[in-house]
What does this fold into?
Amino acid sequence: MRIALLCISPLQHDSRVLRHAALLAHAGHDVRIFAQAPLPAAPPTPVTVLPGPGSDTRVRLGMVLRQAPASLLPISADLLYWGSATRLAARRDLLRFAPDLVIANDWRALPIADAARRGCNARIIYDSHEFASEEFADSWRWRLLARRHVVRIEERYIREADAVVTVSDGIADALAARYGLARPTVISNTPAWQETAFRPTGDPITVLYHGAIVPRRGLEILIESVAYWPEAYRLLIRGPAQGGYDQHLRALAGGLGARIAFEPAVPPDRVVPAAAQADIGIFLLSNSTTHARFAMPNKIFEYIQAGLMVISSDLPEIRRVVEAAGCGLLLDEDTPRTIAARLAGLDRARIDACKRAALLRARDLNFEAEGGKLLTLVAKLARAGTA
It folds into this structure.
């Protein structure tokens, strides 16, 4: 099959799209990715580079002009969606490729995939990485300016998809209930299996956050908490920064000296080996929205694959994984002093026990197990297409 993976975002750190592309190409399909720069150094398949979104100011202006009108007139979303050079170029290039199957990553890709359905009879898999209708529900600006547009687009096109997949059981149940769908297939955001040796807890004890350095990830709280941590601990923040937000965080961390370090992102295939040099992987997310309660971020699986103890906000999907693995602890509240108190209550023996438990669970929580679900689904659609 000719398969297009369509994501209206930068490809460089989109490990899910890269894993899916590599898997499908290895299975013998003709695969092309359509995405924005920057790209990884060695993409697993050919890539058609889409125009970028431009400056942060242009992005915000585009949201106001294209999305806000739907708050008053929902039907306007269908027309204004196409007021974007990126989306018009993606539609043009996708139709030239003439795919048999389009995997549309997140709601922004759905109308473009539908154009391929109408233009060349392509089948569609909608891969919902987030619960789009609630993704930024904790922001009044997003609720006022963007939510109705997002809901309208997803609601209009999700039923045109031949199959829907997502990243967690919670999102699968929510999508099925909201749109009256058969329950989507869950393909967890697990990394490819990489053998990781147990590494005893270091000195100092390194607490790692890796992932996008953006608001609403609890990073201000995490930095503030370091002042209360026992002397044995240090914090490492590693990942791609957006909109200069890392400069804000560096200013917050200024008085703590060497106890906090910032590092740039590493390529997706180096995320787990780099993480394995730490001791504890941490993730904070306020349990204030439906979307947050369904969150099952890839970093949790990456921490486990790297053999780290996991400390996380107490969210249902994450709780299920961490408790089943016995590899960490959950925070009853995300405050600086609570985080510090939980760290103070640990010793190296407890951290090492959690690290060993993570490595044991990693043998099952990997993409070799999850990727088979995607191959099965693609084969089913291929058979239906030739029937």
